[in-house]
Amino acid sequence: MAGGTALAQNSGASTGDSSPLDHVEGEVPATGGDDAPAGGQPVEDGEANAPDQQPAFEGQTRAAQPENPVEVSTEVIAEGLPQLWSMEFLPDNRMLVATKAGDMHILSQDGEPGPAIEGVPEVMSEGQGGLLDIALAPDFEQSNTIYFSFSEPREDGNGTSVAKATLTESGENGGALDNVEVIFQQMPSYDGDKHFGSRLVFSPEGHLFVTVGERSDTPIRDEAQDLTSGLGKVFRIDPATGEAIEDNPFYGHAKIQPEIFSYGHRNLQSAALDAEGRLWTVEHGPAGGDELNRPESGINYGWPAITYGVAYSGEEIGPGRTAQEGMAQPVYYWDPVIGPSGMALYQGDQFPDWQDAMIIGGLVTEGLVVVRLDDAGERVATEERIPLGERIRDVKVGSDGAIYAVSEIPDSDASTIIKVTAAE
């Protein structure tokens, strides 16, 4: 199962993530703001790509908007940046950002970028490739260790890899990566330029979740169902060594990749822990099949054997099934899609109504998608949209309780950072 939308060719670097084609901002109906539906009605009222498909249970799609949608104010706090893929706050509230092209920069608290950090390994930045997610080690304040995922060029193609390094600062917001070590490589390699994923999330136990894509093309994407392949998977590894955790579901099997935690995914570009420390993800699917999942150990999430939505051509994907025995249903799906990117659990004082909600960046919806779960924390209770007018690539919650959204402006290969606060 999965997520993506109706599309058009992009002439520059890839900015969509669901197909060789790219999302067209103008084709998505505006939602939220003054034109938002009344509370209790779904935010999404656009025509579905697969109108004959029915959800498996009530509330699996087009959840109601809350009765009193949150009003926000926005401010651009950094602009003229190179096209960014991810952002992480440093302990002093400066920002460490990763550019798609393969650079890292430290931004001052005023949003000014320092020089490119030295020592970043070579990345394959064509298509949807590039320098992807960045995460600080849990003990960063003592170790200065960071982790990052990237599209690694290899002799037999490329693939998503994870590296760790020591961030050594120098000068004014400059520095270098020392002791760079690639600790994990998604295998097999493939000579393509799509569906690399990837997000990095530390579990409460200090293990590292790594999300990846299934490389998009047919038939290679079928390996999302293959436990001997690392395509279309969530991995759980030891951040010190990159090795599998011993209680991973397939640890010790002779042929299965032991790092695999869950499988049957398409292109995972959103991941975060909830308030209980459980992993949640949102993955790009086909036209009308973005989906929210709570990956569990050893579970098969179905792609491409089952999926909501259809191919970009409008044809069914495979047998056209949305359910099959032994394959998990998504907690929630979007048709039309949102184009999911970064995701963060909201915990702060700015937005009390969003406490413990998931804030998801929308590439297609050009804003934030706010998902609140029911009291049991298992199903979506409400969905809210906050339009920002730009494709949102990453989302973080600051220590001040504000939400910081990293945009991308494809035609100019540039980015901004938008600060979202409660309206006064």
Automatic annotation (TrEMBL):
InterPro entries per UniProt: 6-blade_b-propeller_TolB-like, Glc/Sorbosone_DH, Quinoprot_gluc/sorb_DH_b-prop
Composition bias type Low complexity, residue spans: 29-40
Gene3D superfamilies assigned to the protein according to its UniProt record, in alphabetical order: TolB, C-terminal domain
Domain Glucose/Sorbosone dehydrogenase stretches: 83-408
Biased composition (Polar residues): 7-18
Segments of this protein annotated with the region Disordered: 1-70
Protein's recorded name: PQQ-dependent sugar dehydrogenase
Organism (species): Fulvimarina endophytica
